[in-house]
Amino acid sequence: MPTAPPLEGFDSFVFSADDATRTVYRRGSGPAVVVVHEIPGLTPAVADFARRVADAGFTAFAPNLFGTPGKDYSVPYILQGMARACISREFHVLATRGSSPVTSWLRALCRHAHSECGGSGVGFIGMCLTGNFALSMMVDESVMAPVLSQPSLPFGVTAQHRRALHLSDADLEVVKKRAAAGCPVLGLRFTADPMCPGERFQRLREELGDRFEAIEIDSSRGNPHGIPRTAHSVVTKDLVDEAGHPTRQALERVLGFFAERLQPA
């Protein structure tokens, strides 16, 4: 199967595992960080974030799970991506106590990235539909720096769904043990974002204690930075790349977290 043309500045390769084959875009050198895109796909904003990761001294691996690589956001494209995810066998958007099947392929990619790049382990960031996948990755000990950016699964249709972590009870126990043993978890969200309810971060605090670091950016009405209540994508679409802006500070914290965990002094 030929690879798709790479995004500008990225190499690409085909990776197969668990009877699935996908294109992965790669850039940089140093410890591996797997960057998993949000809906609608591997947009220019997600690619820009992956470039920042690479420029910070890491090898960014950006798999293409759905959508057209390099295609920009639009309302029809987002709705199309949402509809496909809802009917896909690889994404269980309402599962409260179980991970989406695609996480098995992503864990295999993390192991491959670690074997290729070496170092103490792998960083991982999921966004929106893939945000909770960072917890699923912690079942594999190669993942040392998990980041959940606006984790949106399961969709918050009930109070139970809003608190759920899209993780089996057995995997949650593994996550808790790893966190207690010294593997922290970083989470990002906007406070008014209905796709990533505050109840979910509260559940993470209850389960992981001080091993969960939450960055919750004020997007309430009248907030001092004028962040709209519709803001959702912290380090991509809704990033304001200005010194002192909360989203820029969140971006800098993510890169710092990867450095602390993967590039120890």
Account of the 3D structure:
The protein is α/β, with parallel strands linked by helices and 265 residues long. It has one domain: Rossmann fold. Helices cover 34% and strands 19% of the residues. It is built from eight helices and eight strands; from the N terminus they run E-E-E-H-E-H-H-E-H-E-H-H-E-H-E-H. It has an eight-stranded mixed sheet with strand order 1-2-4-3-5-6-7-8, with helices on both faces. A hairpin with a 2-residue loop joins strand 1 (11-17) and strand 2 (20-28). It is globular. Mean pLDDT is 94; it is low at 1-5.
CATH architecture label: 3-Layer(aba) Sandwich
Radius of gyration: 17 Å
Overall body shape: globular
- Oligomeric status of the shown chains? single chain
CATH class designation: Alpha Beta
Find the structural class using helix and strand composition.
alpha/beta
CATH superfamily: Alpha/Beta hydrolase fold, catalytic domain
Beta-strand proportion: 15-25%
What are the segments in which pLDDT stays under 50 over at least 5 consecutive residues?
1-5
Annotated CATH topology: Rossmann fold
How many angstroms does the end-to-end distance come to? 41 Å
Overall pLDDT metric: 94
The main sheet comes to: 8 strands, mixed
- Count of DSSP-assigned helices: 8
Number of strands: 8
The level of helicity is 25-40%
